[in-house]
Amino acid sequence: MASDKVYTYAEIKAESEDKNSTVIVIHNVVYDVTDFLNEHPGGEEVLLEQLGKDATEAFEDVGHSTDARDMMKKYKIGELAESERSKKEEKKATAVPKTDAGDGDSSWKSWLLPIAIGLLATVAYRFFFLSQDDSGKP
User: Fold this and answer.
1) Which pTM value belongs to this model?
2) 3 state DSSP class of 127
């Protein structure tokens, strides 16, 4: 799929009507998600509601995983024309790569705090409750 084609919303609408494709825009990138409709975990209706529109807000509201964001790459067919981009969207688009630029460390870091709390709770339990049992023995 050509990823360097530039689309306007009129072309996106025509693509959706003429080729019976499901084309959406997320962060100024144009995706043809027709082949993904049956696989989408939220159901095809969610994608069809965004047909030919900017689906960025709906996409971000759900909080898609890094895996979902990586999966999107194969459905990319182009970019939204500069003249069609909103100023608000351009600001968001520049911020998104920074949050997605993680190197995979976030998954183990998210477990670090709960594990540390669990270890501290275990040590505290053993120290306070088991030491009381030891002091009561003759």
Assistant:
1) 0.58
2) helix
